[in-house]
Design a protein that fits this description.
The protein is built from 14 helices and ten strands.
């Protein structure tokens, strides 16, 4: 899979039971979950495996959960991609797998990141909404005219855009844009908006205390949509992404048009990113191979396929 791009999912892909089969069947996975429990100081693995869902959905649990599962799956795959990207929190997973920072540092860092993001805005003050079937120019125009704070948060595909900010401003933007479909998202904070600047500032202090290394494979950064390879690029990218948009559609276009990969593998919980890359590739009349790795069976089936070739 050395000519593949690896994609690492972000918040929203979590589910109760994630990683349980890895823990049950792999000694390495068991050690990694136990390490996360020890670092975080509570039975974090129990929240992953048993929930309740409302507990897992808390940002400071969701983020280390997704990181841990993605990291374990990558370790079990035992192969490097040609290039990688991670959606928001998934950028941490990608950087850990690329050797930019240790898993031990990252799992505590994303737990804190979740806390800082949750504490930046009182519950109920912020909101996020997904807009389906609209062009980026229309969204940019609307958010610039609305009174209050509302920003572009995620550009997920050509016509799937997420906005984030103050609750009333988000609702006003929804009315102004009048998308064929709009959905207020069940999130606990307005991620990737200017309201996250206090969290970004707190996280920057932690990031400056952590040792980063140059990457073992390149990653396309969420904010700049540029390939990064160095330790300092990795650190600075993580500082900026808390309050700035995830330019995922532009990242996928870059991979499809410039990177010359033969396929894509989503490494971690859920299948959101696999669906987005299929959709974007179809619009370009491309048909890359797209696979998911969520369980140990997924990895073993890949190995069986290789053995039969």
């Amino acid at each position: 899979m050395n000519n593949y791009a690896f994609l690492f999912p972000g918040q929203g892909s979590q589910f109760v039971g994630m990683g349980k089969d890895l823990f049950d069947k792999s000694d390495e996975a068991k050690k990694t979950f136990q390490m996360a429990d020890d670092i975080l100081g509570y039975k974090f693995s129990k929240v992953c495996f048993e929930g309740p869902e409302e507990e897992l959905k808390l940002t400071y649990n969701t983020q280390p959960a997704l990181l841990t599962v993605s990291y374990i799956l990558y370790q079990l795959l035992e192969t490097k991609p040609k290039v990688a990207a991670g959606h928001s929190l998934g950028e941490y997973s990608a950087l850990v797998c690329a050797g930019a920072l240790s898993f031990a540092d990252a799992v505590l860092l994303v737990h804190k990141r979740g806390q800082y993001m949750q504490e930046a805005v009182p519950v109920g003050r912020g909101a996020m909404a997904a807009l389906i079937g609209v062009e980026m120019d229309l969204v940019k125009s609307a958010v610039s005219k609305v009174n209050g704070i509302v920003d572009l948060a995620n550009w997920n595909s050509a016509n799937q855009i997420v906005i984030s900010g103050e609750k009333q401003a988000v609702e006003d933007a929804i009315k102004m844009i009048a998308a064929p479909k709009s959905v207020l998202l069940p999130v606990s904070a307005p991620f990737h908006s200017r309201l996250m600047l206090p969290a970004e500032e707190r996280l920057a202090v932690d990031l400056d205390r952590i040792s980063f290394s140059d990457l073992n494979f390149p990653i396309i950064n969420n904010v700049s949509v540029e390939k990064i390879n160095s330790a300092e690029q990795a650190r600075e990218g993580l500082k900026k992404q808390v309050s700035r948009p995830v330019l995922w559609h532009a990242t996928m276009l870059k991979m499809l048009n410039e990177e010359g990969v033969s396929g894509f593998a989503e490494i971690g919980a859920g299948k959101v990113l696999a669906g987005l890359i299929r959709k974007t590739a179809k619009e370009l009349d491309q048909r890359p191979v797209v696979v998911n790795f969520q369980t140990l069976d997924d990895i073993e089936n890949l190995n069986l396929s290789r053995a039969g070739q």
